[in-house]
Write the structure tokens for this entry.
Amino acid sequence: MSPTEPFVFLGCLELNELLSQEAHDGRELLEQLVRVPVESIFCHTSAALLRRPVLAEAYPNDFALWVGTEVRDVRLAERLAAVDAFEAGSMERVREELIATISDHLQHLGTAPPRTHGKRFRFFQMHLVPVPTGHRAQTLPEFRDALADVDVSAIFYHTIEARYRSGRGRGDFAEWVGSALGLADLADRLAHIDPHAGSLERIRDRHLSVLSDAITGEAS
Amino acid sequence: MAQGSLLTLDDYRQVAPRGTIDFLMRIGERLRGKRLVHVSASRYGGAVVEVLNRVVPILNDLGVETTWEITIGTADFDQVSRAVDKALAGTEQVITEAMLARLRETGVDNARRLRLDADLVMVHDAAPVGLVEQRGAAGRWVWRSHHDLSSAQPQLWNALRPMVQRYDAAVFSLARFAAPLSIPRFIVYPSIDPLSERNREMTRAEQAAQLDRLRVPRDKPIVLQVGPFERLHDPLGVINAYRLVKKHHDIRLVLAGPPPSPGGDVLGDVQEAAGQDPDIAVIVLPPDPQTELNALERAATIAIQKPLKADFTIEVATAMWKGKPVIGTIAGGIPFQMVGNVTGYTVETVEGAAFRIRQLLSNPEMIGRMGAAGREHVRRNFLVTRHLSDYLALLAHLTR
């Protein structure tokens, strides 16, 4: 029997670059969404989890949040919040959905879109530098223990960023548990942990809970 | 635990988020042997210096060869430097060609004297900005601006911009502070050192001794604003808010700030407004008042920051780290450090500040809940360990 390929936990350093693009209303937001690099779409949707304090009532991406709180166009904010970056499969697809949503909204608006009452929207892009955390695992218990200890950026790198890096639509944890350990059911349960669960720490806790259940089940 | 400058990265395990310290060590392994030079105009005073004092030895511990160079200038250069800082902050100044020439010459003189051969040279703020004119082909150069440049005097900024654009990148504390530039602009928030004299844990006895020395009784809830006695920090507005609250709650107001500087100071007005009210304490702090501020912030029930215009105002994070809800305006970096309605409230008026103070005093359980949420928010976002990670990210990204 060939030895199990170990899982190597990588964390990531993040660097936020301010771009020159800005928006004061929905129409400018639409124009800039066409132009900005795809890394900027990632920064303002999936990666918002990395830095935004999690509030149960907060919209899940920066575009919806800004339209809701600064432009105060609740209808558009709600529709932008419904664009699910984790379901879309690729960031270009997310960009298309955002553009289609705003275009449709503006078309049916009938009047000039409202301008921001406060802050303009400033586009960022994120640079990620992956770094090994020094944690590796070959068995499920080792994997769970390492997962409990790693820097929270590793949770982001393997569960959020991996969806787009690999194009598999699921994170590295589920992929390894399924392919290296051959635990398809467990892999499926990990893959279905909702990234909108809240903070990265909450996502970690949900993974730990699923893994602990599986380990207890194996032992009994 | 080691004390003062003898602190090591390991000492931060007790305060940093889990996994952070081991991860920083791994990053250090990856960047081992890289050379980083910080350049600033001073080694004393201010939040920037406090962070560098801590970050430089830790980076060396991590294996990144880090040095900190100080530029020197003639007496008239200090005047030029002060005028430039004020003009960049938006206060109209007379900036002559001769002053700009002095800025450049000082850069040339210091570039000859300083050791700037490194993989990354990080130049802090305006005084040493001209060093870049002498840069060689090797190494990458970053200009780190710690101030709000959004309303910089146009004539000055037009003269400085070509110089700044000789850097490979610029780093600002907030997007709203950033000036338009053709080079990449990165955002790195300031941070607090949780183990510094200002923020370390303090026994109740020590706290009491400090408060006795400052003549602040501990018999009723304290609302505290720390900041200069300047009109822009609106201490008079804070007194007005206190008076509105005082009709309903028996509280004490403490206004603490550095000694008056020439011009623009409203300490006299503040003392007059406080009048004979024994429940208002106006405290002119001694030099380097880290221990005093630590004690005052720990004694406070609610911290308030009510400037009308501000830089990042990291005092918000220092109060939150001590578990205090903060009521702050939307100036500068204040709203970026808070989570509205979770760690405190943002307000725009005297009446708003008074309302939120009353609301908290009437619901004391909210004070504890918001304070605890604030401390956790600071732990994740505003500790010096996150700052280290940002600088390492810059080093890794720009020297890749």
Notes: The first helix of chain A runs from residue 26 to 35.
